[in-house]
Specification:
about 325 residues; alpha+beta; Alpha-Beta Plaits; 3 domains; six-stranded antiparallel beta sheet; five-stranded mixed beta barrel; about 40% helix; globular
């Protein structure tokens, strides 16, 4: 191994007091390990969305390790440490740390979750995770809104139910339910196949203290594959900010810094995502201003008209 490489490892070592290996592992232990490893991957992608890191599965053992240079690893480790201390306002990091916490907390399963530096010093994140009662999102003093736009990704494994909805499988026993209208459900059935890996633009409540799998999600759009990275990266930065004025400046800055086609792609999904009664009228108005030059665009114009109608209804109530 390169001497500059650091490792972040999660390993399942015992279930019900018995050691486990890849050749001998109870079904419950395998499900738990896959959930934890999947959550760690989501955390890493939230911190470094443009990087393609290697995850190494050790031969014979139930262990997965991220290998990365010291510089990017330090950001990952710092973000995990802040999340465990409930000092993170990144919803993806917090939600996935809750998944890890839920899997590491039971006494009958023993996990090793550790970070090894280039000089071989070790940080035991497993003990830190088990020592806290729950993982909470950092609260800003002026946070006023209970909903935000986000991206949910998983394998589509069920469409329909008692109410119009569809389900994602984000790992064994880690499911996400997304509500939608009957018309939206028909569109999803026509465009997406069951068991396909899908990313959806959703609105959900950030006040929930539960994992993302228990957070109410409302469907807004199925994302095109080339738009997932840019829109997810922007929304995670946007949602991490507490001050409304700063958030609006972020929208303006993204419009200025992006080339026309990239901004057109992002704008299309922002117009859809923020077309919801829970959002502040200033967020809607800012998007209406930023989309004015696209109002004759056949793919942007109708979405802008829908948002304008929602904005007018909202200000009429004020």
């Amino acid at each position: 191994m390169d001497e500059r490489i650091e490792t972040l490892e999660i390993a399942l070592t015992h279930v019900n007091g018995a050691p486990v290996t890849l050749g001998s592992i109870p079904s419950e232990g395998l499900k738990s390990f896959l959930n934890v490893l999947g959550a760690l991957r989501e955390i890493v992608e939230a911190i470094h969305p443009q990087n393609d890191f290697n995850f190494v599965i050790s031969e014979g053992s139930v262990s997965g390790a991220l290998e990365a240079d010291q510089s990017p690893m330090s950001g990952i480790v710092r973000a995990i440490d802040q999340g465990i201390k409930s000092e993170s306002d990144n919803v993806t990091i917090v939600n996935n740390l809750r998944i890890i916490h839920n899997e590491l907390k039971p006494d009958h399963r023993r996990f090793r979750f550790s970070h090894r530096t280039v000089d071989s010093s070790l940080t035991d994140f497993g003990e830190k995770v088990r020592s806290v009662e729950r993982i909470r999102k950092k609260r800003g003093p002026n946070k006023r809104y209970s909903s935000y736009v986000g991206v949910a990704t998983g394998y589509l494994n069920q469409i329909g139910g008692t109410n119009p909805e569809y389900h994602f499988n984000k790992g064994l026993e880690n499911h996400v339910k997304i509500s939608c209208t009957t018309d939206e459900l028909k569109e999803i059935q026509d465009s997406v196949g069951v068991y396909e890996n899908v990313s959806s633009l959703v609105v959900h409540s950030e006040s929930s203290q539960t994992s993302e799998s228990n957070t109410p999600l409302v469907h807004k759009a199925i994302l095109e594959s080339n738009s997932v990275g840019p829109i997810k990266h922007f929304l995670e930065s946007y949602n991490a900010e507490n001050e409304l004025v700063t958030k609006l400046k972020m929208m303006y800055r993204r419009a200025v810094d992006s080339d026309r086609e990239e901004w057109r792609m992002i704008l299309k999904y922002l117009l859809v995502g923020f077309d919801h009664s829970n959002f502040h009228q200033s967020e809607m108005k800012t998007l209406l201003v930023l989309s004015k030059t696209f109002k004759e665009d056949p793919s942007i114009g109708p979405l802008r008209s829908n948002l304008l109608e929602s904005y007018q209804k909202l200000i009429a109530k004020v």
